[in-house]
Structure formats: C-alpha cells, structure tokens
UniProtKB/TrEMBL annotation:
SUPFAM superfamilies xrefs: Alkaline phosphatase-like
Location of the region described as Disordered in the Swiss-Prot/TrEMBL record: 467-486
Coiled-coil region(s): none
PANTHER family, alphabetized: ARYLSULFATASE FAMILY MEMBER (PTHR42693), ARYLSULFATASE G (PTHR42693:SF42)
Record domain Sulfatase N-terminal: where: 27-362
Signal peptide region: 1-22
Family: Belongs to the sulfatase family.
Protein name per UniProt: Arylsulfatase
One Pfam family this sequence matches: Sulfatase
Keyword field: Calcium, Hydrolase, Metal-binding, Signal
Amino acid sequence: MNVYLSTLPILMLLTTSFMVQAQQAPPNVVVLLYDNLAYGELGSYGGGALRGAETPRIDRLADQGLRLTNFNVEAQCTPSRSALMTGRFSIRSGTYKVPTAGAPDGLTLWEETLAEVLSTRGYATGMWGKWHLGSEASRFPTQQGFDEWYGVARTYDEVMWSASDEASGLTPAMGSRAGWDEGLTPVQYIYSSTRDNPPVKVKKLDLASKRTLDGELTDKATRFIKRNAEAGKPFFAYVAFSLPHMPTQPNPAFAGKTGNGSWADSLAEIDARAGQVLDAIKDAGVENNTLVILASDNGGEATYPWQGANGPWRGTYFTAMEASLRAPFILRWPGNVPAGKVSNEIIHITDLFTTLVHAAGAQVPNDRVIDGVDQMDFFTGKQAGSNREGFVAYVADRLSAVKWRNWKLHLIEQEQMFDPPIPLGLPRLHNLLTDLREEHNIAIENTWALPPMMALVGRFKASLQQHPPIASGTPDPYLPDRSANQ
C-alpha cells in the first residue's frame, strides 16, 4: 500500500484541525485610553492642525477602521473607567464619582473586571497608567485581574501643585513657598506591581514625573506586546495615558516641537505615543489579529488654560451635556472591521466590556446586571445599526439626562462643571441632529418622544430596585443581598 495514500487522511485531519484552531485564535486586545481627550482635538474629529498639531498616526488609524461620532462615556473619570472594566453603569458599583482623597473608594473585589474575564481565556493582561478604581493596595489593578501594572492609583490633580517646576513653567501656589507639605496631605506615588504581589513605590507623582510618564507607559506596553507576541500568547494591553489631563505639559522631548505652546506639543505627543504602540503591534507580526481601540474617558478639560476643544458640543465634563458624554472612538481590527467607516450610531462605553469578552470567546458574568451590549455585529458590518437605542446618564448619583436615538432629555440643568445642578420642573428635550448645542427645548411639540424615553428610565430604576447598587466606599469582602432579588 502506498505510504503517502495511507497517511493522507491523517494529514488532512491534522491540517483541518490546525486551520480551525487558527481561525478560532482569540484576538489580542489593545485599548489606548486618553485622559480627558476632547471630541474636537484629533484631526479626524475636526481638530489636529486647528489645535496647533496635526495627528497623522491617529488619523491614519481612523482610516483603517471604524470611527464613531456618537460614542458615549460617563461624566467623570472614575465612572467611565469603572464602566469599561465591568460593563456596568457606575451607579451600580459605587464608583459614580471621582473619590475625595482619603475617603474609601474603588471597585469591590466582588466586581469582575475585563482583565479577570479575559484571564480565564489564557490572556496575558497588562495595564499602564491611571487606575482610579481603588486607592488602597488591596484594590490595585493587580488584585483585579491584571498580571502587571505601572502607573498611578488616583489622579493627576494631585501632582504636588505647590512644588515649583521650572521645566513646566508652573510656580509654587501662594502661601506654599516651602513646597508640598507631606505632613498635611500625603504624596501620591507612581507604582509598579505584579499580580497578587505587594506594589512598589517607584517615585513620587509630581509635575516632573507626570511629564515623562506617558513615555514610560508606552515603553512598558510595547515591551509587553513584543514579549507575549513572541510567546504566542494572546494579550490584553490597557494603556491609560495621562495626557491631556491637566496640568497639560508634554514630555521634554516634545516641548517646543510645534511652536504653538504646551497644549499643541502635548497633542503631538499623544499622536506619537499612539504611533509607537501601533508600530510595536506591527513589528511583532500580530497586526492582523489585534483589535485596537483608541478612545477617551471624558470630554475635554474645563479649567483655564487647559480647556479642551469639544467640537460642536456645548458644556463641560462633570455634566450630562454632549461635550461631556461624547468622546472620540476608533476601532481597528483588520479583516473584521471595515476600513474607513464612520457611524453616528449610539454606543456606550459599557458595551466595550461585553463586546470584547465575546470577541475573546469568554463568558459574560451571569450573576449580576451587565449593562453593556454586544456590538460586534455592528462593528464588523454584519448589521447596519447599533444594538443600543439609548441610555440613562448619571452625573455622580444624580439621574441627569436620557439619550434615545437622536433625542436628548435633560432632567437636571447643568452646563458647566462648576454650575450648581438644578432639577427641572419640566424636562427639556432636544433633537441632537438639528440642535447640536442643546439650546432649543422642543418638548411641547414632540411629546410623542417622551414615553419611550421615560420608559427607558423606568426600566433602569426598576433594575436598581431589583438589584440594589453598591454604596460608595463599601469595604471588602462584599456580597450582594440575594434576598433583594426575590
């Protein structure tokens, strides 16, 4: 008998098995999350040169994939990052506002993060940058599913403002000539940590270390990508950059690069750092099997001289205005997501959790409410529309607005973050296709739109009744009261 013929069925079986395994290989996931990058900063969103610095690498990324014009986040940094990590509106998780320094804060360990779920599928998980979901070591990223982390636990508002920094041009605050008083307010640190091991304080978070932080985050993330690509291991890389969060100061290598000031220099650095990560993915030979998301956690900065450019939208973050909720979003996955597509369909940041979990072949937790919906069929062009028609918008623990299709209903009036929130006796309705700046209340002539919007509110409030939210500052160990669901 011909030896070749006798072994042919076995060879065909092995080849078929290999092809099936290759087709089912889970994609690598890279999330580039910028901090308070406003809707109108990037060239692909009408900014770029108009803001003093072109953004060619990010604009090219947009051409290679999907760009959304109606990607929605939550009103503050902590809530948005919580929603991304858990797929749950932050009001459910007790993470609905930026925590005050010294107060208990963060996700309870009962929550299941995106990193934890992807780990069940054998992913290497790494994070670099701002966590903002737990100030204590027991709630750091490496206790929440990440294999490694380098970054800050809290925020960049705490960069020792009172200390002078000649390089940044910022001087000591009045009455603080001696610098930051560590006896009154503890210094924040940049940490390094690996899974389940005690974190290491690498250096103080100050004006100088913030300037160089994004370069460090990029270097560590690109080495992680290379290492895991060479090992043939799927990876989840979450790069939470510091820019352009105030104080908006570029790395010294970018200072003066544009000739248009620190903001433009920072925008040039934002683009360059994205390019470095994209180059690392390509150089590692995994570009075609890597799903890349570039987004922002909030609308633009609201404090002079670091105000962001929010494009056509009015208001600031820490409100339910469109300038707060709409953020840039670009998705590239070669061979899966059509290139050059632009869509105004509604997507919420919670949807990324569910979509990425399913893309990895993992299971969404079924023992809790998950608000995110799977958008992969929409992202890949298998269907024309989003699987989401709208959502409720909380600002801290205040239900402030509802978005539904192209309509927006305000329940609380607050345009700027420093304005007092004023409950409205009658809700204010806007058509966001004809009234981008939310200036004209057309509720009287469009009462037909109110029932479906208020029904959305009713369903959400009912879910909070059935599944009571976790109180802010709840300590571990935490377990939900299942009797409340009966």
